[in-house]
Amino acid sequence: MPQNEKALDFFNAKKIQIDQMLARLQLLSANHFDAPEPEDVNWGHVGELFFCAEQLWTLLEAIDPDFEDFDYKHKLEFPARPKSER
Q: Of 43, 51, 53, 68, whose CA is between 20 and 30 Å from 33?
């Protein structure tokens, strides 16, 4: 029995769990993250999505050494709300 067999088993189990979470995330994205009808979307919904994007950004920075080469950071800046919506 390889010395790392138990570690490999745990690694594979966690990878399966991550794959399941990614599949769920893909489904939620396809459904626009269960947002209300377009006319009902508000800045709270935008904030929630930005929070999720920031968390994903942090995760990818931690696990992908090439991620910093992608030019996504500027897209994570929260837009200023129009004065008419404040």
A: 68
User: How far out from the chain centre does Cα 65 lie?
Assistant: 17
Low-confidence ranges of the chain (pLDDT < 50): none
Q: At 66, is the secondary structure helix, strand, or coil?
A: coil
Q: How far apart are CA 76 and CA 6, in angstroms?
A: 39
**What is the predicted pLDDT for the residue at 10?**
95
Rounded Cα distance between 26 and 17, Å, is 14
pLDDT for res 65: 82
* Nearest one of 47, 49, 11 to 33, comparing CA atoms: 49
Domain ranges of the chain: 1-30, 36-86
Q: Both tokens of residue 55? A: 């968390």
Tell me the one-letter amino acid at 77. Answer: E
